[in-house]
Design brief:
The chain has 23 helices and 4 strands. The chain is mainly alpha-helical and about 425 residues long. InterPro entries: ARM-like, ARM-type_fold.
């Protein structure tokens, strides 16, 4: 890269901005290092930026101002590590994509939330909600933690939400750049470009035809699968738009997606099934296919060093979330399949499955512990699986917190006693 757009860095007053560790004066050095010819310098820069302007999913006042430069270097084909660059840019836009799946981005709801945050009455609204939240705490420990969160004040949460939205809006300006990357020579770049376009439903009318073009010409199964999921998310976000009528082109898309049932790639078959569920156009076969993924997994071909983009590459957990979005009464085999997958999982990898299977078993969390003999058969089986999970799972605080939410004994000894083991 010869003509570095460093003016996009130099024009920002970084000293007036902040990141996770304070004043953002070190950000310009890291941004410049992203185009260094030295791969170790680039790696160190990404690591630093991930810890400062994107820290554990949070965005800061210095996050959005960095985006214009990031998009400018992405546009240059000579920039190194462009798949990594798209990945980082999308983290700035979204936080963790697991927070937005399987539904995608609901821009109407998000913009309404931001308008509320900017309202002069928001402080009173926030205090009232926090008081209700504290009153609903399941135990003294949770009540104490929630009071601590209230004591931090609404200002921090308000600012973090506004910074996150500002970062998303800044990245949205780069949609034309992502579209151009769909024809890049690098399969990794094409893969991540397709992923990026999934998250901007307001640009669906112009992005969708390009993603369908990817399906016509793309040899790589991972890229095609990514484009399919992106289309499902873009068109699936019509919920609540206008009169609720499907947007133009969705019927043709559904027909096309159903044709992938016979695709040579199991990954493409799975992606089409996921997209059809999001579009609420699934048939029993598609649900069975997603459920089967929970049992056997899916091989991801040619997804590059970073892996498959959606859900951090964890297709089993993504599938579990898709199953949880279904009406289980219409698909009685779905919930047992998630429970079966949970019985074979352990440690931190089991946490999403635990959350999903409890949602499937109980719906909303009960207000108090239900006697074991009063549980349904599936609820009993679920708690038995949880009681029998190993210490590598029980040692996780997140696991225990999920059990507390559902009023299930939160020690292994207590849980085993509860189920009669």
């Amino acid at each position: 890269m010869t003509n570095h757009p460093f003016h996009l860095i130099d024009s920002v007053d970084w000293a007036s901005l902040s990141h996770a560790y304070g004043e953002a004066t070190n950000v310009p050095t890291d941004l410049r290092a992203l185009v260094s010819p030295n791969p170790e310098e680039r790696k160190a820069a990404y690591t630093s930026l991930t810890g400062t302007i994107y820290h554990q999913g949070s965005r800061y006042s210095a996050s959005a101002p960095a985006v214009a430069y990031l998009l400018a270097i992405l546009k240059d084909p000579s920039t190194p590590d462009r798949a990594h660059l798209i990945n980082f840019i999308m983290h700035l836009a979204l936080g963790y994509d697991t927070m937005h799946l399987p539904g995608g981005i609901d821009m109407r709801a998000w913009r309404a939330q931001i308008a509320e945050l900017k309202s002069p009455d928001y402080g009173a609204v926030w205090n009232r909600r926090m008081d209700e939240w504290i009153a609903q705490a399941p135990d003294d420990g949770a009540r104490h933690w929630r009071r601590m969160m209230r004591a931090i004040g609404f200002r921090q949460g308000q600012e973090e939400s506004l910074h996150a939205f500002a970062a998303y809006e800044a990245v949205r300006e780069g949609v034309p750049v992502f579209r151009g990357c769909l024809e890049d020579e690098s399969e990794d770049v094409r893969l991540w470009a397709a992923y990026a376009l999934a998250w901007f439903p307001e640009q669906r009318a112009t992005s969708a035809p390009l993603l369908e073009g990817v399906l016509d010409r793309e040899p790589g199964a991972a890229v095609r699968a990514c484009a399919i999921i992106a289309l499902g998310l873009l068109f699936g976000c019509w919920d609540g738009e206008g009169d609720g009528a499907p947007p133009e082109g969705v019927e043709a898309l559904v027909s096309r997606l159903r044709g992938y049932a016979a695709d040579a790639s199991a990954l493409v078959q799975w992606a089409a099934a996921v997209a059809l569920v999001r579009l609420k156009q699934q048939e029993p076969y598609h649900v069975d296919l997603v459920v089967q993924c929970l049992v056997d997994g899916v091989s991801v071909e040619n997804a590059g060093e970073l892996g498959f983009p959606f859900y951090g590459g964890n297709i089993v957990d993504y599938s579990a979330e898709v199953v949880a979005s279904l009406d289980v009464a219409e698909h009685p085999g779905a919930a047992p399949a998630v429970l079966n997958a949970l019985s074979r999982a352990s440690g931190v990898e089991s946490l999403t499955l635990v959350s999903v299977v409890l949602r499937l078993a109980f719906g909303s969390a009960p207000g108090e512990t239900i006697p074991f003999e009063q549980l349904t058969e599936f609820q009993q089986r679920t708690v038995e699986v949880l009681a029998n999970m190993g210490p590598e799972t029980w040692r996780w605080g997140n696991f225990v917190a999920i059990l507390k939410e559902y009023k299930i004994p939160s020690s292994q000894e207590g849980c085993r006693k509860y189920v009669g083991l």
